[in-house]
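Why should sequence recovery work at all? Because a backbone constrains its sequence more than one might expect. Tight turns favour small or flexible residues, buried strands favour hydrophobic ones, and helices have their own preferences. The token representation captures these environments compactly. In the example below, the structure is given first.
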């Protein structure tokens, strides 16, 4: 029996060697990017661009192909493969598929580095390719660590549970936060309860897709070779909404945003920038470990936030697109803000910003400015496809909802009870529901309840173009409300603070307000300027000098008459009542509840459609 099978040196391989091998991949990527940006080649040695160094560490010196006879990561992977494979499978394919895949990915990375202009100022391709290959290699490298942890759990091997949990559980922080917290509590911070092992395994299986591999990649824990593990289907429900199309891959853009925030908060801005520019999680190619080759179309590459921020198709979201461009006087307003912040060039959120403020700026801008416009143009595309009587209306509709809800909310009604899970509009509404007294009996947002009705209405109206357009307009209308709630909340937190305060709330208040101010400016420029002066950082000026109630009133004044703003769905806090100008939240809510209860209930869709009809008329007048 070899050293790996005996367990000697397991910790050195699984913890230290694995981490260092990952480091050399990222170090090669970083050096390549420095050279492509005009760095002096004499300042550092590119070497093998991380690829040669990685494969040397992975395979080792004395490794024999397709065996456990070695002392490195390759041998560890072979050992894990044999634990999860039958003797006939091993005889047919002696080398672990993970090892085969990693060697193929190494060849891809090495080929990219072999071109004469690779990593030079004349080269635009090597860094994106290295980023993609690096993500695929790392995803594949998780597989043996997960297999060894699962095997230890099944056999209640406490020492190895502790070892492999320490190796893989920190990596799960990039996935659904509620699952990570449960795994951390049970496997890292506490003593493993044998009665909960099945639940622990289910939690691990639920994040395979986030880590970049499938149930088939891991294999079966059972002696009969059958696996109870099931991968998330592409038509997985989104906070109970059942799409008719496979759009789950697109919903996973929220994982990019989650990971972007983690990297920025750790001051890993360079790698946050790579993730923003090139994407990772929102890919039609599944699993992540599937290699890209010349026969694979480019639509299988990940969709990046940068692509969505600069996509020319955003123009389909007019008139909103034009409003945002006019207000910011910049077609790349969100893209520039994120890149300037990560590169520490931004006048406000540059070198003086705290890591928490940087993370807030980049993640909330991605969620509520980039995806904002993407959802709008997906809805517009759905209506246009219906009007043109061509295919695509249903898929565009489901893609819009995927980008509005996200994957992290899970499949259950209302979304996740853990507010750390979601990153998109659905989560923002749930996050503020209790504070603003706009929650249902089960604690979820009434805004989202109204929204879900429109999701299903639109799905049923794919061939009823007028009804579909009404539902789309209703969704657009509702999407503004949680951002207004968030702006009012940050106004409360920021009142009286210095513009140099390190509080994260300064960044949140500015980004939230800038996400909705272009709309406010369409109807009332004075109100828009008033909100801006209270929420956006100004040199030498304190934050929110007029108080949160004045900010709430400014939203009401600008949007009630022409936009059909419903302050009953925005709600009230002890510091700011969104309905103060109508006699107070309780009075307005009572009327709203009467309208939406019992036999006298007017459907939400009809109510919002009326408001949006007014909005469309006003928009037409403003344009012409």
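From this structural description, the recovered sequence reads:
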């Amino acid at each position: 029996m070899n050293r790996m099978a005996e367990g000697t040196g397991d910790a050195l391989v699984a913890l230290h060697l694995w981490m260092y091998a990952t480091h050399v991949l990222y170090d090669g990527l970083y050096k390549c990017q420095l050279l492509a940006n005009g760095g002096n080649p004499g300042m550092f040695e590119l070497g093998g661009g991380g690829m040669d160094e990685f494969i040397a560490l992975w395979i080792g010196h004395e490794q024999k192909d397709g065996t456990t006879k070695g002392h490195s990561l390759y041998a560890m992977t072979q050992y894990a493969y044999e634990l999860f494979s039958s003797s006939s499978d091993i005889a047919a394919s002696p080398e672990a598929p993970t090892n085969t895949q990693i060697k193929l990915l190494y060849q891809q990375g090495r080929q990219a580095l072999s071109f004469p202009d690779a990593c030079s100022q004349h080269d635009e391709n090597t860094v994106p390719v290295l980023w993609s290959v690096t993500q695929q290699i790392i995803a594949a490298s998780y597989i043996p660590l997960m297999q060894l942890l699962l095997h230890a759990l099944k056999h209640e091997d406490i020492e190895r549970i502790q070892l492999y949990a320490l190796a893989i559980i920190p990596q799960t922080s990039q996935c659904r936060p509620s699952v990570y917290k449960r795994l951390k509590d049970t496997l890292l911070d506490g003593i493993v309860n044998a009665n909960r092992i099945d639940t622990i395994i289910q939690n691990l299986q639920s994040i395979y897709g986030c880590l970049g591999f499938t149930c088939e990649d891991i294999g079966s824990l059972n002696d009969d070779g059958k696996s109870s593990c099931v991968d998330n289907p592409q038509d997985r429900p989104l906070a109970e909404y059942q799409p008719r199309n496979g759009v789950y891959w697109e919903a996973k853009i929220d994982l990019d945003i989650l990971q972007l925030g983690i990297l920025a908060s750790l001051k890993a801005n360079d790698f946050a920038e790579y993730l923003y520019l090139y994407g990772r999680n929102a890919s039609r190619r599944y699993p992540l470990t599937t290699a890209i080759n010349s026969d694979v179309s480019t639509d299988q590459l990940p969709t990046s936030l940068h692509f969505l921020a600069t996509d020319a198709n955003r123009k389909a979201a007019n008139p909103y697109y034009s409003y945002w461009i006019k207000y910011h006087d910049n077609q790349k307003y969100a893209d520039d803000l994120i890149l300037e912040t990560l590169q520490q060039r931004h006048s406000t959120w540059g070198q003086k910003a705290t890591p928490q403020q940087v993370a807030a700026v980049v993640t909330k801008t991605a969620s509520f400015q980039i995806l904002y416009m993407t959802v709008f143009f997906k809805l517009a595309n759905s209506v246009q496809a219906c009007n043109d009587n061509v295919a695509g209306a249903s898929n565009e509709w489901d893609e819009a909802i995927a980008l509005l809800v996200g994957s992290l909310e899970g499949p259950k009604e209302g979304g996740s009870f853990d507010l750390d899970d979601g990153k998109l509009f659905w989560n923002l509404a749930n996050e503020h529901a209790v504070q603003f007294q706009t929650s249902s009996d089960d604690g979820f947002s009434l805004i989202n309840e109204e929204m879900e009705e429109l999701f299903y209405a639109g799905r049923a109206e794919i061939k009823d173009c007028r009804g579909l357009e009404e539902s789309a307009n209703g969704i657009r209308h509702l999407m503004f409300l949680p951002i207004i709630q968030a702006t009012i909340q940050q106004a409360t937190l920021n009142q009286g603070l210095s513009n140099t305060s390190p509080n994260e709330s300064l960044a949140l208040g500015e980004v939230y307000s800038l996400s909705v101010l272009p709309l406010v400016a369409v109807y009332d420029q004075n109100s828009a300027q008033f909100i801006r002066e209270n929420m956006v950082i100004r040199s030498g000026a304190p934050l929110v000098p007029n108080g949160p109630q004045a900010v709430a009133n400014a939203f009401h004044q600008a949007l009630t008459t022409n936009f059909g703003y419903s302050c009953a769905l925005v709600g009230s806090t002890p510091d700011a009542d969104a309905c103060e100008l109508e006699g107070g939240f309780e009075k307005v809510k009572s009327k709203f509840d009467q309208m939406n209860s019992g036999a006298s209930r007017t459907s939400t869709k009809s109510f919002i459609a009326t408001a949006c009809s007014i909005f469309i008329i006003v928009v037409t007048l403003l344009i012409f």
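A few observations help interpret the result. DSSP finds 29 helices and no strands in the chain.
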